[in-house]
Design brief:
disordered N terminus; mainly alpha; single chain; 5% strand; 43% helix; 86 residues
Length: 86
Amino acid sequence: MRIVLSLPQPYERAKKSTMPERYPPEDPREWLNRAQSNLVLAGMQGDRIYLEDLCFNAQQAAEKAIKALLIQRQVEFPYVHDMLSC
């Protein structure tokens, strides 16, 4: 999916954002929603967007999708930022 970044038209400014339904953090659907949000951000295009920021959002989408799967399968995992330290 590719999204073109442009200034909104005057009529588009009045549109409401379509935020996904929120779930508690222990619900895998919340993490899939968050992964999808990061994936949308990772697919943005524009002259003023850093490539490393897009890569960061792609990496975050992957981590959150994996977290959703682990929660859904009831696999315990450490709450750390460095998975290599486990």
